[in-house]
Amino acid sequence: MSDLNLFEKNIYALRFSEDELAQARKFWRPICRYLQPIVDPRGTTLDLGAGYCHFINNIESRVKLALDINGDNLRRYANPDVRCIVAPASNLGEIESNSVNSVFASNVYEHLMSREDVASSCREVYRVMRPGGRFIVLQPNFAYCARQYYDFFDHRLTFTHKAMAEGLQIAGFQLERVTPRFLPYTSKARLPRAPWMVSLYLAIPLAWRILGAQMLLVGVKPAGQKEQ
Fold this sequence. Notes:
Layout: H1 3-15, H2 18-35, E1 44-48, H3 54-58, E2 63-68, H4 71-77, E3 82-86, E4 100-106, H5 115-128, E5 129-140, H6 142-149, H7 161-171, E6 174-179, H8 195-202, H9 205-211, E7 214-220
Parallel strand pairs: 1-2, 1-4, 2-3, 4-5
Antiparallel strand pairs: 5-7, 6-7
Helix pairs in contact: 2-8
């Protein structure tokens, strides 16, 4: 195991207790219900940087893919119907071009080593995605969480919603949605936390403007665009 992989493995072993992970699984169920209308349940969905697989385990999709550099987490937490791929977010070589309907990336790009890696990841997502497919990005928005951003040791890069939107456009995506403030900065935040509170929070966009510190962007691969 490389020093980098060992670092990633150790830091996530320390970050969340089993009780916190159980709470996070409940936290993610209403989020997945909220996102389900923009995820094709009849298609193929890729969870990019899947981590503990909270999203891919709960979203409805005919084919489910989970990609992460931490293979131990994938093998431990992915449901049996999820195909696990151990690879960095900037290299989707195991996935065929024009084969994925939906790609979801949550809290991924702040961990990459460089902006060039982020650009490579966006290009790879564009390559594997079918025309008309959606790239859903949930990401800390540095404009609204600067004071707490570096409380996490592995945060390397910073993005605002404007920068991330520009990156998606450069990769070829058309922007369908840019929400600067969506979820709180971390699932460890005091509010909202219980599933019913998350559902209520998601139903009141005004609350996002008070508590939201993560952006939500949706990019669409234009129809008629195919990668060779």
